[in-house]
Design goal:
Strands 3-2-1-4-5-6 form a 6-stranded parallel β-sheet, with helices on both faces. It contains 9 helices and 6 strands. It has 204 residues and is of the alpha/beta class. The protein has a single domain, classed as HUPs (Rossmann fold, 3-Layer(aba) Sandwich), CATH 3.40.50.620. The radius of gyration is 17 Å and the shape is globular. InterPro entries: Cyt_trans-like, NadD/NMNAT, Rossmann-like_a/b/a_fold. GO terms for molecular function: nucleotidyltransferase activity. It is an enzyme of class 2 (transferase).
Length: 204
């Protein structure tokens, strides 16, 4: 039985912090594989800055030399009404029926699930396992204890509360490109060159 982590994000663009996070989580949680899952541009709560094809190409470039990393375009191909984490995890458990599948997320998302903001949040928590990464200012144990949705299913959470506080974001990198900055050491070299070659994130 393999241990597989599903790592969802906009990846707009993918950064060195994304890669470092996936590697660190994979090592600490003894994952055999981390699946990079770019979200759909059709989600109502997300606004992408480049075409899906560019986000996808950059992910492939970023992970090409790591045999423990894989990309999956499942959510990219979903309509907005079906692009939710419950359906996503159902899909991956069906794809890997003999393996243990985890959803990797930050503690900020744990707060939202606990507050009942996610579609089918209670079913999601009851039926799945999670790896939750610390975020500054969020007490994960307190979040779980205060939410009936979370505290009644707390055996499904693996909390990582140290050493994952790097906060260089994709939005920071986009802003640097737009302002004519030099963020080349914040993302893989081949992704940096891809952005330059395709004139992405440039201010019009």
């Amino acid at each position: 039985m393999a241990r597989i982590g599903i790592y969802g994000s906009s990846f707009d663009p993918i950064t060195n912090v994304h890669l470092w996070t996936a590697s660190t989580v994979g090592r600490r949680c003894r994952l055999d594989k981390v699946v990079f899952l770019p979200c759909s541009h059709k989600r109502r709560d997300k606004e992408m800055n480049v075409a899906d094809s560019h986000r996808w190409n950059m992910i492939l470039l970023a992970i090409e030399n790591n045999e423990n990393f894989e990309a999956d375009d499942y959510e990219m191909n979903q309509e907005a009404w079906n692009a939710n984490t419950y359906e996503t995890m159902k899909h991956f458990k069906e794809k890997y029926p003999n393996d243990e599948v985890f959803f990797i997320m930050g503690a900020d998302l744990l707060v939202d699930i606990g507050a009942g903001k996610w579609q089918r949040g209670e079913d999601l928590v009851k039926e799945n396992k999670f790896i939750v990464m610390a975020r500054d200012g969020i007490d994960m144990l307190k979040v779980i204890s205060k939410s009936p949705i979370l505290r009644n299913n707390d055996e499904g959470f693996h909390l990582i509360d140290k050493g994952l506080a790097m906060e260089i974001s994709s939005s920071y990198i986009r802003d640097e490109f737009a302002m004519g900055g030099e963020p080349r050491y914040l993302l893989p070299d081949n992704c940096y060159q891809y952005i330059i070659d395709n004139l992405l994130y440039q201010r019009e």
